[in-house]
Amino acid sequence: MKILVFVKQVPDTDDVKLDPKTGNLKREGVQSMINPLDANAIEAAVQLKEKYGGTVAAISMGPPQAEDMLKKALALGCDEAYLLSDRAFGGADTLATAYTLAKAAEKIGDYDLLLFGRHAVDGDTAQTGPATAAYLNVPQITLATSIDVQDGWVICDRNLEDCTQRVKAKLPALVTVCGEINTPRYPTPINIMKALKKPRTVWDAAALEADTARTGIPGSPSSTKKVFEPEKRNTDTKYFEGSAEDMAVQFVDMLANEHLV
Amino acid sequence: MAEEDYKGIWIFAEQQNGVLNPVTLELLAKAQELKAHNGEDIYAILLGSDVKALAPTLIAHGADKVIVAEDAALASYSARPYQQAMTQLAEKYKPSIILYGATSLGRDFAPRVMVSLKTGLTADAIDLGYDEDDVFYQTTPAYGGSILAHIVILECRPQMATVRPKMFVPLEADESRKGEIITETVSVDAEDSYEVLDVTQKISDHEPIDKASLLVCGGRGIKSEEDLKMLGELAELLGGQVAASRPIVDNGWLPHEEQIGQSGATVKPDHIINIAISGSVQYQVGMQNSKCIISINHTAGVPIFDISHYGAVADYRSLVPAIIEEIKKRK
Ligand SMILES: Cc1cc2nc3c(=O)[nH]c(=O)nc-3n(C[C@H](O)[C@H](O)[C@H](O)COP(=O)(O)OP(=O)(O)OC[C@H]3O[C@@H](n4cnc5c(N)ncnc54)[C@H](O)[C@@H]3O)c2cc1C
Ligand SMILES: Cc1cc2nc3c(=O)[nH]c(=O)nc-3n(C[C@H](O)[C@H](O)[C@H](O)COP(=O)(O)OP(=O)(O)OC[C@H]3O[C@@H](n4cnc5c(N)ncnc54)[C@H](O)[C@@H]3O)c2cc1C
Asked: Hey, what domains does chain A have and what are their CATH numbers?
């Protein structure tokens, strides 16, 4: 079985700052990491490989520094890594991102299973997986909380708003995983060493035979027009005062006024 | 084709087993505002088999036209037949806007339509409208901090977005509203590569948090699971439930179902008590429409107080036990 796992490099913080002048991300001092759910996707792939045999390739579109993250993916058990890196890929929305990822999947070829995180913590659109499935015209299972493969079908549980589903899709298929699916292992020092010897490939737009009118900014119908601070809804806050006991009395008076006690 | 040749505000009418998802009616209400601006008709797009009976409800809630496309392959949702059907309809009618609920189904489906129509799709918008330059924009929270972004789709049509449930209030049903029901035939391939094997309805020992009338919510400032139990006790005394901001869920102290915010649930209870929560944008989008907002935080000036009706600048470890004791005293 040939499994492709798609991993994104994201900033290692919840508290990214914007440059007030340019409206761009301030990147100084912000470390990068592998998108957390993509580590779950890698773990799912490696467990399937351990069970049924096969290979796992990690693929990322990103700047050259994303190599470091791909080394981590290799240390977590992937067999080879592909970095899709070209200035022409920068500024992509999900249509252009999925186009580029699908081009790489086609170039690698013969895949059985494509694994994605449900969403990335920074852009957080959760659109890249289904859009890539559409380019490749394969069925998809989003929001998977378990995964297994039997007789050429991938079988997953899905966690939805008001129910859980058990579904199956015929390979080749694309699955996006939730955090509940597993607990990613830690890379051992030995595996980190071994990872350095595993094959890593970098592809640019020409190598992918990608149409650069469909990648990066030119290939992105959506764009950010402005970023701004939300309007402060200046609610007239009534503050409770005094010691904890005083506040508690005022607090419970308020609850009584609201007919809660 | 020029942009101005695309006309019509389309709302994907999400239904499963003949039951409309409430987000559809919310979007029909919001569409009235867009129509007031651009003068275009509002269409509800109803895909399924044997779903025509839902059309009058859509008209009563604000659709000018309902396009019904029925096919056995659309009986239950699967991505590819739905993608084919929506693509064919959009290519025929050329709407300027298509909105989907940002539900698990809408977010599974809409990105595929984006690819086949080669257009943009804004994810999980919390608001929409026309800006000062007359450009249609969608608002999404961005970058973990106190920032919102306007996403625009300038040159491609239709302009598409998935929109968060519970952002808008549906119109009252008006049975006397007139509308047109259009029946369309689509040519879709039966999906033989995807199958739902089993469905288990979620049963929980309490109501889902978006149905509770009172919520006591804990944030990163809560020091231990013991303390979280104390919040549970307060909630119980007030007939409500416990929920949380993301760090508590990340800790594994509460299940994801009980997380409020951008990547969790949207709630609108009568009362919400925020304890040791700072009030990030991502948290606020999930609860800002609550009727009465009460917050306890030991740091004055944190953003949660900006939207609170009542505030206590205090350490919850002394205040919450005192409140519990005071309530018990009065019972
Ligand atoms: C504030 C903000 C708002 C945005 N809003 C929109 C929008 O509304 N619509 C839109 O089309 N784009 C939008 N974008 C752009 C979008 O984030 C990028 O297109 C990005 O490349 C896709 O990232 P994501 O975080 O949305 O990924 P998601 O779709 O959330 O990621 C899901 C999974 O896709 C895979 N994946 C994603 N990116 C890569 C990659 N580069 N390499 C390998 N695998 C990957 C991973 O498995 C990941 O877990 C926005 C960006 C920002 C910063
Ligand atoms: C893409 C994305 C999606 C996100 N989605 C969500 C989401 O759905 N929901 C969500 O909540 N977050 C979400 N976040 C995270 C969000 O940005 C914040 O990090 C998070 O909401 C902070 O939670 P908090 O207020 O509990 O913690 P903090 O911001 O750390 O606040 C803790 C507060 O506790 C107070 N405190 C500490 N000790 C005490 C004490 N003893 N007594 C009283 N007060 C005390 C502190 O003063 C502080 O204000 C998301 C982030 C990103 C990037």
From this structure: 2-208 (3.40.50.620)
Of B112, B150, B199, the CB nearest to A131: B112
The number of CA neighbours under 13 Å toward the Cβ of A97 is 24
Q: What ipTM does the predicted assembly reach?
A: 0.90
- Report the nearest atom of ligand 1 relative to the CA of B122: 8
Q: What is the pLDDT of residues A140-177, one digit of tens each?
A: 999 999 999 999 999 999 999 889 999 999 999 999 99
Structural domain range at position B138: 3-184
Q: Which residues share a beta bridge with B151?
A: A224, B138
Residue from A238, A236, A235 nearest A254 by CA: A238
Number of folded domains that form chain B: 2
Alpha-carbon gap, residue B75 to B60, rounded angstroms: 24
Please name which ligand lies nearest the alpha carbon of A221: 1
Q: What is the mean pLDDT of each run of 10 residues along chain B (331 residues)?
A: 88 96 97 97 97 98 98 96 98 98 97 98 95 94 72 96 91 96 97 96 80 95 95 95 94 90 90 96 90 96 94 96 95 81
Angle, to 10 degrees, between the axis of helix A94-108 and the axis of helix B104-117?
80
Query: Closest partner residue to A222 among B121, B144, B198, by Cβ?
Result: B121
How many Cβ atoms sit within 10 Å of the Cβ of residue B118? 12
CATH number at residue B97: 3.40.50.620
Q: Tokens 């890539």 sit at which residue?
A: A132
Query: Taking the model in full, what pTM does it have?
Result: 0.86
B322 vs A244: CB contact, 8 Å cut-off? yes
CB contact residues (below 8 A), chain A span 172-231, against chain B: 173, 179-180, 220-230
**Ligand 2 proximal residues by C-beta, below 6 Å:** A 14, 121, 124; B 144, 219-221, 245-247, 259-264, 276-278, 280, 282-283, 286, 296-299, 302, 315-317
pLDDT in tens, A99-131: 999 999 999 999 999 999 999 988 889 999 999
